[in-house]
Write a structure and sequence with these properties.
Number of helices: 3
Helix content: 40-55%
Structural class: mainly alpha
Strand content: under 5%
Radius of gyration: 14 Å
Order of helices and strands: HHH
Distance between the termini: 40 Å
Largest sheet: none
Length: 90
């Protein structure tokens, strides 16, 4: 498999923002320590870092002064469109 093979993925902006927020919190903290139980191979964390970097390249929201409120609104949007995985969680 060649390293130059790119893939294009289209995400709803709310999904991209929530995914960015999640990855930035979990992969950057103590080199992915919060994900230790879920990761099965040493390639998975770098793959998540690459995904985070790709999202960082296209999203402007992380630099906005109201980033936190934008993430909250994106979460509400996702739950309205797709439902929530854990009804009792925030």
């Amino acid at each position: 498999m060649s390293a130059c093979n790119g893939v294009t993925v289209t995400l709803d902006r709310s999904v991209a923002l929530v995914l960015f927020d999640f990855l930035s919190r979990t992969t950057d903290e103590e080199e992915g320590e919060p994900l230790n139980e879920a990761l099965q191979h040493k390639a998975e964390l770098p793959a998540l870092w690459a995904t985070l970097s790709a999202l960082e390249d296209v999203l402007t929201e992380p630099l906005a002064a109201d980033y936190g409120s934008r993430v909250k609104a994106a979460r509400v949007d996702i739950v309205a469109k797709l439902g929530g995985a854990f009804p009792k969680s925030g």
